[in-house]
Specification:
Elements lengths: L3 H5 L21 E5 L11 H13 L3 E7 L19 E4 L2 E6 L9 H20 L6 E8 L2 H9 L1 E11 L3 H7 L5 H15 L4 E4 L2 H10 L5 E3 L20 E7 L7 H13 L4 E7 L3 H11 L4 E4 L7 H6 L3 E4 L13 H7 L4 E4 L5 H9 L3 E3 L4 H12 L2 H18 L2 H12 L10
Parallel strand pairs: 1-2, 1-5, 2-4, 5-6, 6-7, 7-8, 9-10, 9-12, 10-11, 12-13, 13-14
Antiparallel strand pairs: 3-4
């Protein structure tokens, strides 16, 4: 018999290939996914959770998602959803049940707590009124830790609840200066209590596992890196355009996008023909645009996020992608966009510290470059080196795509999550 504890502690980037067909994966008969973000939100945790839910549905699980009316990253409810006409709808085989919330304008701790509190009060009311019933298999997503706490009530006695931690909220709040020490302490206590009531926990990287263990989480913790639909996102030929460094995602505080603007200034001197394309939206959008104007950055262009049906073509527009992070929050979150970039067969330049999850992946795969955070000149030099050497960039892109096909497809992720939900923690074994 395999030692399950050892299987759970395998490296985040040392996973077996999964089945090629989703139908070959044994899954629970019914599944409830509790997450504050979901389709059609184009950034953050929503794409990954949407893909996971639709994968379970495609494999035969009757899948329900309990979520908010879409509002991220623009921090306003999307057109067509505010009146509640789409609060109960089946899309791609998944029944989506949506609840109202108050989007967190400004991104501060108080606004986030109001947003999450209103939403999860609605979740609790949906359970009490019978709109959503208890399930034998439940997946919850943090953020928000309130989703994890509520999911315990949505799990039948003897059922399995697996909590997925994309962001460790107490760590991010403390590192990014959101709220005082008392607030961070309260969030930390809530995290410890809620996570220890789950049957198993999933994190995206080894550093995140270590943070949770230091927090006092004693339940089994599995490391499953972000995954991607590798059929929908795949390498495309380079379009006819100037050399392009691309950032795509939320314009939020934890990304540290100020260093990207400074990098663009240095890149203009190193490679005047190159452009920096910032594609996204969020609370910092106007601030970033004003800063770019004040810096006179003629090589920087802002665009909205590409729609889902254009994602693959949009990814191909980046000869080199950018994955900036603020260093103080790197241990508390793992950028899912990194795997999507690798699936597209493009290299990227990340800002990260030695010992981080991205630094470990760079050493193993060799598909991107890491530079120290808050050193925009070093970032610019790395970007220029890849833009000026297409053969090197192409080789790195091929290595990244190969790693995704073996380790981070939806079939691999579905297999590992299904095993946790079914109580089979020997994830290193075949189905």
């Amino acid at each position: 018999m395999p030692d399950d504890s050892l299987q759970l502690r395998r490296s985040a980037f040392d996973l077996p290939s999964g089945p090629s067909s989703l139908a070959a994966v044994p899954v629970p008969e019914e599944l409830l996914l509790v997450a504050q973000s979901y389709w059609p939100e184009p950034a953050g945790s929503a794409p990954m959770m949407t893909d996971l839910a639709t994968a379970f549905a495609a494999a035969g699980a009757e899948t329900t998602v309990l979520t908010a009316r879409p509002n991220y990253p623009g921090n306003r409810v999307y057109d067509g959803y505010a009146d509640g006409s789409q609060d109960s709808k089946t899309v791609d085989g998944v029944l989506i049940e949506r609840l109202p919330t108050i989007p967190p304008a400004g991104g501060g701790l108080k606004a986030r707590l109001i947003h999450e509190g209103v939403l999860h009060a609605g979740f609790a009311a949906a359970l009490a009124r019978g709109r959503v019933g208890r399930h034998d298999a439940v997946l919850s997503l943090c953020p928000s830790i309130l989703s994890v706490a509520l999911a315990d009530r949505l799990t039948t006695p003897g059922g399995r609840h697996v909590a997925i931690v994309h962001d460790i909220q107490s760590g991010l709040a403390g590192a990014l200066g959101m709220g005082g020490k008392a607030a961070v302490k309260a969030i930390r206590a809530m995290e410890r209590r809620a996570l220890n009531r789950a049957d198993a926990i999933v994190v995206l990287s080894e550093p995140m596992r270590g943070v949770l263990e230091e927090l006092g989480v004693t339940k089994p913790i599995a490391v499953i890196p972000p995954h991607v639909d590798a059929d929908a996102v795949h390498p495309l030929p380079r379009p006819d355009q100037p050399p392009t460094a691309l950032y795509s995602g939320a314009f939020a505080r934890k990304q540290g996008l100020e260093q990207v603007l400074e990098m663009a200034g240095h890149l203009g001197g190193l490679m005047p023909q190159a452009r920096v394309l910032l594609r996204g939206q969020g609370g910092l959008e106007e601030e970033l645009k004003a800063q770019a104007r004040a810096m006179g950055l003629s090589n920087v262009t802002f665009e909205p996020l590409a729609p889902k049906d254009r994602l693959n073509e949009a990814m191909a527009e980046g000869d080199v992608h950018l994955v900036p992070q603020r260093p103080e929050g790197a241990a508390f979150a793992m950028p899912g966009k990194a795997v999507t970039i690798l699936a597209a067969g493009r290299p990227f330049v990340a800002t990260c510290l030695p010992g981080s999850a991205l630094a470990a992946l760079e050493s193993q795969v060799g598909a991107f470059l890491c530079t120290p955070p808050e050193q925009p000149l070093a970032m610019a030099q790395a970007v220029a080196a890849l833009l000026s050497d297409p053969s090197r960039a192409t080789a790195m892109g091929r290595r990244g795509r190969a790693w995704v096909e073996s380790n981070a497809t939806r079939a691999v992720a579905l297999d590992r999550y299904a095993r946790l939900l079914l109580g089979n923690t020997g994830m290193g074994e075949g189905p």
